[in-house]
């Protein structure tokens, strides 16, 4: 999958896209990231990218010109699935991440300042939010979206970190996990995990997942019913 990212702060992405699992997916050729600095496309003398809102009010609005010029350069024929990261967008869920993971190419537009000129948003395919709180820009949401959807792309996760039995796949939270040593500072690993009895281990994990979900997120159990 190719992912074009339109942002005023490309440097914010470096650490996230070129570390750990994203880095590995990039090296394997599964994910290709291309960062575009919207400021490079500004035709104004001082490379401005924002201006005062018509009608007045606080804050600045991202101008349409640099965004449209960047889109012309990056996705002239509109072949990418274009997503703007905005607080008013569709809230990211596992289902949405899965749907987006099936696209051949994505284009992510990260908003900043108080907003984006509505005419630039009118040429997007979708707006996505990562939750009901407001952040200073769309960069972190774009990184969250990329991380989340990449886990649904075959080959991104190695077999050792397969997502098949993780939290939201079954609609339940994760069961408790332990590694060596079997006893640490007087705290013991539950006997069943050391028993080698796989049927009992499965049963215990399922019960603990249900218990954790009931305690922490009863709303998730309601959804399962
Ligand atoms: Cl996509 N953008 C901003 N600025 N804030 C957010 C968001 C997006 N999603 C949640 N909060």
Itemize the secondary structure elements and their pairings.
Layout: E1 2-7, H1 14-17, H2 20-27, E2 32-37, E3 50-51, E4 61-62, H3 64-74, E5 81-91, H4 94-101, E6 105-110, E7 115-116, H5 118-121, E8 126-129, H6 139-150, E9 183-184, E10 187-188, H7 191-194, H8 198-216, H9 218-224
Bound molecules: 6-chloroguanine.
Residues 85-87, 89, 129-131, 133-135, 137-138, 141 line the site of 6-chloroguanine.
| Overall radius of gyration | 22 Å
> How many extended strands?
10
Approximately how much helix is present in the residues?
25-40%
Largest sheet: 5 strands, parallel
Topology-level CATH name of the largest domain: Alpha/beta knot
> What is the mean pLDDT?
94
**Can you tell me the CATH superfamily of the largest domain?**
SPOUT methyltransferase, trefoil knot domain
Query: What is the CATH domain class of the largest domain?
Result: Alpha Beta
Looking at the overall shape, the CATH architecture of the largest domain is 3-Layer(aba) Sandwich
Q: If strands are numbered along the chain, what order do they take across the biggest sheet?
A: 2-1-6-5-8
Low-pLDDT parts are none
Order of helices and strands: EHHEEEHEHEEHEHEEHHH
- Overall tally of domains: 2
Please explain how this structure is put together.
The chain is α/β, with parallel strands linked by helices and 225 residues long. The chain folds into 2 domains: 2-150, SPOUT methyltransferase, trefoil knot domain (Alpha/beta knot); 165-225, tRNA(m1g37)methyltransferase, domain 2 (Trp Operon Repressor, Chain A), CATH 1.10.1270.20. It is built from 9 helices and 10 strands. The chain has helices at 14-17, 20-27, 64-74, 94-101, 118-121, 139-150, 191-194, 198-216, 218-224; strands at 2-7, 32-37, 50-51, 61-62, 81-91, 105-110, 115-116, 126-129, 183-184, 187-188. The protein has a 5-stranded parallel beta sheet with strand order 2-1-6-5-8, sandwiched between helices. It has a 3-stranded mixed beta sheet with strand order 3-4-7. A two-stranded antiparallel ribbon has the order 9-10. Helix 8 packs across helix 9 (218-224). It is elongated, with a radius of gyration of 22 Å. It starts with a strand and ends with a helix. The relative contact order is 0.14. The model has no long low-confidence stretch (mean pLDDT 94). 6-chloroguanine is lined by residues 85-87, 89, 129-131, 133-135, 137-138, 141.
